[in-house]
Amino acid sequence: MAGRGYTIFDTMIGRCGIAxxxxxxxxxxxxxxxxxxxxxxxxHIYPDAREQRPPPNVxxxxxxxxxxxxxxxxxxxxxxxxxxxxxxxxxRVYQLTQAIPRGETRTYAEIAARLGATGAVHSVAQAxxxxxxxxxxxxxxxxxxxxxADKMSANGGSISKRTLLSIEGxxxxxxxKTLFDVLLPVAxxxxxx
Length: 193
Description:
By secondary structure, the protein is an alpha/beta fold. It is built from 7 helices and 6 strands, in the order E-E-E-H-E-H-H-E-H-H-E-H-H.
């Protein structure tokens, strides 16, 4: 196998993509609204990758992603991720995130506390927003305080955290922000008097 490769594959939520290099998987792309958009995003992120048949390590990852998105249990422990160029802090966040069991969630603050960096909540959120290994590193299992599950990482396509958690049968009160929740933080202060 020379250079990077990618493939597009079917899941219960649409056509996903996965890219890899010699050292392992470099990224996973959840489906966009149309397959051409999924392909376009993969090309934009990995312009040197060529469509080809996936090697065994990638086949294991694809099978796990398909199984998880069907609502089944998936084991990614044998999947090799290429974290070359991934900041050390982000790698630590991803390792903790991979340890979150299916059907459970954590908050950004809980991950920051586990890292021994309680003031790093924003940095944890940023690391997960940059997660190139969606599903394999289940960033959808990490929520804002208040269990809001509306956002998805850059490689999340059109699929929300809520959808992924629902497929996994996540426990707990996972909610969406209302318009009031979204606008309140940006609303100008009311003058008193």
